[in-house]
Amino acid sequence: DIVMTQSPVTLSVSPGDRATLSCRASQSVISNLAWYQQKPGQAPRLLIYGASTRATGIPARFSGSGSGTEFTLTISSLQSEDFAVYYCQQYNDWPPMYTFGQGTKLEIK
Amino acid sequence: QLQLQESGPGLVKPSETLSLTCTVSGGSINSDSSYWGWIRQPPGKGLEWIGNIHYSGSTSYNPSLKSRVTISVDTSKNQFSLKLSSVTAADAAVYYCASGGKLRYFDTERRDYYYYHGMDVWGQGTTVTVSS
After folding, report:
1. Which residue does chain A place closest to B127, by CA atoms?
2. By the 8 A CB rule, do B91 and B99 touch?
3. Which are the contacts of A34, defined by CB distance < 8 A and separation ≥ 6?
4. Chain B nearest C-alpha distance from A5 (Å)
5. Which of residues 61-80 of B touch A (CB under 8 A)?
6. For residue A9, how many other CB atoms are within 10 A of its CB?
7. Which of B62, B16, B72, B77 is nearest to A96 (CA)?
8. Most C-beta atoms within 10 A of its C-beta, which of A28, A64, B28, B46?
9. Pick from A30, A55, A95: which is nearest to B60 by CB?
């Protein structure tokens, strides 16, 4: 089974600064990597898929990169609404199957 | 605008079967490009994918739950359902239903187009407690 490991567990960043979140896969997942944002009491929201493609309506300050086993979610110029928990997710081409990372909490410094 | 709403008992006894339904509105469950799934989140913990179904009845399940999970679809009611048998305290969680279409993207590593059958519409979630 593929294990997804996110780091750090908690990231403290000041508004306006850049945040860099990491996700590592235990084996290559090619570019089959998505990122989700979850705020307290809310359902997750899809941000990125295919490692770097932004979902509909996601601001350009969110960007994803990486392939194989190492992936990064970068949020440039953090806004107050960006402080949340972020999950990476690897997926199969077919059939659709998914594994989430344990999450990174992005908090205000 | 597609909307999903979970429903079902909020309290289930240990060893019994958890049953939840997700009602789809603003769209049809009979969409060839859509997948319908369940994800759960134990209190204070991360997300765990449970399984997916296509309106045709094709399913895929998390291997760690596969022996206890059944997901089905009722096209006449525009609903899909989750059954999880032999529940224990470890199954207590917020259960979300979600849907995803075929999101096309260009894979720069494989240099071709692929699809992400992702979860871009979610229900609000329903809390399930396991207790006698």
Report:
1. A41
2. no
3. A46, A47, A48, A49, A50, A88, A89, A90, A91, B116, B118
4. 12
5. 62-63
6. 9
7. B62
8. A64
9. A95
